[in-house]
Specification:
alpha/beta, Alkaline Phosphatase, subunit A, 2,3-Bisphosphoglycerate-independent phosphoglycerate mutase, substrate-binding domain, 2 domains, eight-stranded mixed beta sheet, 17% strand, globular, binds 3-phosphoglyceric acid, binds manganese (II) ion
């Protein structure tokens, strides 16, 4: 029997993509009819907290993302995110001297093997930064590697759609400035970065990269000319020579380096390529540590994110139930726990799945009703101290760039939050609501040439944080201003009547 707490048990709701901006063009949250979410922000203690840039361990001015957002919410302190660690290695010259990289490159130079760089080419800084390719090309050139093939993944989700040509043009400039490199394949992230387990999508990229099998084109302009569905769904295409032969395939003695600094999407492709090349003599590396099944050596290690909320709940014997749809399940488990695969005895995980093919603009409600059902069920249990859930719609639908669908997603979320708040009051629970980064409050952005384009990416805006008290619970009139996501775990622990974890530097907002 897990002790609940001397104080009230509670519910933590992370509303993914729930950012704050003044009403204005592109602010779908300001347009949406959300009387419950609007009401709690004035009726109960509420504030705005920072969820981007250096406040959460990203480079200054960098938009927030779900990984670091949930990691910092869980850790109770800012964490150096992988993108910062990679940039620091680049800035200090550490990457240039990285022994795993130099050993691989020297072996290629000595053996005449080719280096294959695979990564998302945009400056969205959620999964990758295209400028990291420039550094890797420059290091390969300096180490005498003569053939470097870039297998480009086009974005259109973390940056405005139909900007792939702009970024691929930058990659071509890198080839000229570093004196090495050539595009070998171009694939949309819908194929290359699928994380739903749809291996048919992944296989198209694996076959293009490894075997030169797939649609053919002479150059990326021709590839994009045929990309009717935008950058996300560019058909995995193999670039060919004048005779129509693939420019590159992966051969024995080659090396592959995955250049995304975020694992959760590219890991499916990495595992598939490792399997596809199991009988080949190909060295496979990744820029950062991936949560792959295969053991892929990484160039840059991770920051320690232990000692967070999960460890504190375990230390105090407090049972938590984690709930999310499949799109955000890892966020309320693995990431909230500091990228720790271990499910503690006091943890229960509820992953809401659906057989229905996701059509976010057609079904902005997704399966949020079933997420709310699971939250309400767990809230009814006296042995559960904390229910922690991610409500994905505002972000997942926001990523479509479809303003009106995102308005509907926010309005549906409002109704489901109402159900949860009613259940919380009935079960004597407080509720903390917080965004993990902004998204839907900015649904349009000037493209590279300045014209406003639909924008489904994240923002650097602060996010709302609200504490709805349990019935009869006395709370301060307002939350402390000037906080960040690092202050959420300390706030939850304070509400549970428990101290900060020793590694936490965040402070309760109460
Ligand atoms: O992977 C995605 O869906 C987006 O690029 C990032 O979204 P997330 O950081 O909210 O998961
Ligand atoms: Mn998110
Ligand atoms: Mn997102």
């Amino acid at each position: 029997m897990t002790e609940t707490t001397g104080t009230n048990p509670g519910i933590l709701l992370v509303l993914d993509g729930w950012g704050h901006a003044e009403p204005g063009a592109g602010n779908a949250l300001a347009v949406a009819e959300t009387p419950v979410l609007d009401g709690i922000r004035t009726k109960y203690p509420a504030t705005l907290v920072e969820a981007s840039g250096e406040h959460v361990g990203l480079l200054p001015g960098t938009v927030g993302n779900s990984e670091i957002g949930h990691m910092v919410i869980g850790a109770g302190r800012p964490l150096d995110y992988d993108s910062v660690l990679v940039q620091r290695q680049i800035d200090t010259g550490g990457l240039r001297d990285n022994p795993r990289l130099t050993e691989a490159l020297d072996a290629l130079a000595a053996g005449g093997g080719a280096l294959h760089l695979i990564g998302l080419v945009s400056d969205g800084q959620i999964h990758a930064h295209v400028d990291h390719l420039h550094e890797l090309l420059s290091i390969a050139a300096a180490r005498g590697v003569e053939r470097v093939w870039v297998h480009a993944v086009t974005d259109g989700r973390d940056v405005a759609d139909r900007t792939a040509g702009h970024y691929l043009g930058r990659v071509e400039e890198f080839f000229a400035t570093t004196g090495v490199g050539r595009l070998a394949t171009v694939s949309g992230r819908g194929y290359a970065l699928d994380k739903s387990g749809d291996l048919e999508l992944t296989a198209k990229v694996t076959q293009a990269v490894a075997d030169g099998d797939g649609a053919l084109a002479r150059d990326y302009v021709q590839v994009l000319a045929g990309a009717g569905d935008g950058d996300v769904w560019v058909t995995p295409t193999v670039l060919t020579d004048a005779a129509g032969e693939p420019l590159a395939t992966v051969r024995d003695g080659d090396a592959i380096l995955f250049a995304n600094f975020r694992s959760d999407r590219i890991q499916q492709l990495a595992d598939d390529l490792v399997k596809h090349l199991a009988e080949s003599d190909v060295r496979i590396l990744s820029l950062t540590q991936y949560a792959t099944t295969a053991d892929i050596p990484a160039l840059v290690g991770r920051a320690d994110a232990s000692g967070g909320l999960a460890d504190q709940l375990e230390a105090h014997g407090l049972r938590s139930v984690r709930v999310a749809e499949q799109e955000k399940f890892e966020h309320v488990t693995y990431y909230l726990n500091g990228r720790d695969e271990r499910r503690r005895e006091v943890e229960e995980h509820v992953r809401i799945t659906s057989d229905e093919a996701p059509g976010y603009t057609a079904r902005p409600e997704m399966n949020l009703d079933r997420v709310a059902d699971a939250v309400i069920e767990a809230a009814g249990r006296s042995d559960v101290a904390l229910v922690a859930a991610n409500l994905a719609n505002i972000d997942v639908v926001g990523h479509t760039g479809d303003h009106d669908a995102t308005v509907k997603a926010a309005e549906y979320t409002d109704g489901q939050v109402d159900r949860i708040l009613t259940a919380a009051a009935a079960t004597g629970r407080w509720v903390v609501l917080v965004g993990d980064h902004g998204n839907a409050e900015r649904m349009s952005k000037p493209g590279p040439d300045g014209t406003p384009l639909p924008y489904g990416g994240h923002t650097t805006n602060p996010v709302p944080a609200v504490v709805v008290p349990a019935p009869g619970q006395v709370l301060p009139d307002a939350l402390r201003d000037g906080g960040s996501l690092a202050d959420i775990a300390p706030t939850v622990l304070a509400l549970l009547g428990r101290p900060n974890g020793p590694a936490m530097t965040g402070r309760s907002l109460l």
